[in-house]
């Protein structure tokens, strides 16, 4: 599975597009560089986004990633950016590896936040390999109704 990155943050359908044909050719002709496949494997960090009455809550599974290896930022006033890197495990020349399935490399995910997001009050916490980012919502102002007296 491969993601095609687009740079237009104003189009919600332009980011993180899955290209079903990308891996088809990699199976036939493997890449000469293993670091590209390692980065691609970790690039697809799974993130849930739910909206509660009080906030937008993002949860990302980041097992084995330290707090220092993750960045949470707000770009252009309303784009939440979650990025980071999982370091590769140190290899000892005496070790004999039978299987390597855990991925390493960099990842970046971007989410365009709605207008009611209070981007100046974003909070993030990393516990037990799960990053939780909370973006509070601004209170919805109820329209003011003013009664007009009818003369006559």
Automatic annotation (TrEMBL):
Domain SHSP as annotated: residue spans: 38-152
Pfam family, one: HSP20
Keyword set, alphabetical order: Stress response
Signal peptide feature range: none
SUPFAM superfamilies in the cross-refs: HSP20-like chaperones (SSF49764)
Annotated InterPro entries: A-crystallin/Hsp20_dom, HSP20-like_chaperone, Small_HSP
UniProt key word Metal-binding: no
Family: Belongs to the small heat shock protein (HSP20) family.
Protein name: SHSP domain-containing protein
